[in-house]
Amino acid sequence: MVQKIIECLEDDKHRRIGIYGNGGIGKTIVIKALFSAPEIKDKFDFFIQVTISRYWSRKKIQLEIARQIELSMEDIQSADELASINLESHSRLVVATRSVHICKNVASDRQIEVGALSWKKAWNLFQEQVEGVINSPSVRPRAEVIVSECGGLPLMIIVIGKALATEIDVSGWRLVMSNLLSVTGLESGDIDEALFQKLKVGYDKLHDYDLKCCFLYCVLFPEDHNIEIIELINYWIQEGLVTGNSADASRKGFRIVRHLIEASLVEPVDGVSIKMHDLIRDLASWIILSEEGSLDFLVGRKFNKVRNQELMLEPRTISIAKSPQKLPRVENCLLSKAGAGLLLPPEESE
User: Fold this and answer.
1) Which of 8-17, 241-250, 300-309, 329-338 is the least confident region?
2) Residue spans per domain, the chain
3) Terminus of the chain with fewer CB atoms < 10 Å: N or C?
4) Averaged pLDDT, 225-230
5) What gap in Å lies between CA 246 and CA 178, rounded to an integer?
């Protein structure tokens, strides 16, 4: 796959290349491998990678491009080296998206589909997650069914594999296999519903309720946002999700972060931050919305579509990405580009 893209990039006829595929199929992995390829590093002077989230704006994209260009320019040693960069003839645009329609409209020169893994590659990837536990004669047949049910999606294989890595009881494997086989939604065409039901194995395997809440709390941050670990732990402590004296609570918070990273439910970024894969974030939103009344905070991503359903939950903590709401019961609010029209009662919101 990467080699095919490299060949396109080396052809001057292909200035705009699109990569498309389902969520969790591995587009981000392909892009990272592409940027790391020696052939690409030798051909291009610098790289700019911009993530466009649901709440994108032209200005935000321009600022991020400008920031990365400035950082890249710092690596250029001389004026002669700068003059040798010809953006008109040598620049390339690579777009990665779930939508083939966007791919064709934005990257009109060439479109490449990222397909599902073959069963053999899927099995090898699953083995890397669970290691020797699947060598048991009673476990292996169930493991093979589980891999087949993952549909060749790398993210699902990794998350479910991590969830089963410490499962030594065959009954645990049998339960996961049964849950995957019983997933509904595919017949009616509700692919997202079926996908989330399967990915939820990773969430269900978290060993206690507070750990699950700490994971779900991450969805309150904006999409594609680098979440500072210390800031996140402080929020957990303030919410009572992590308890103990200051030192103990901090240590427990870091252990929870490590656990979530090991479960592949969040990704380490730079040693001080983490982020959620967009599909994992969608999973967390789906869990919060589907388990009505069981949790007291939720994300505002879907306000326009399911506003009434969400307000019936009477949330106590809420994250608003765009649209302000009248929410009299809110005590804690994380604002991201929200307007000035959010109305909270002074007594409860102070």
Assistant:
1) 300-309
2) 2-113, 119-204, 209-349
3) C
4) 92
5) 43
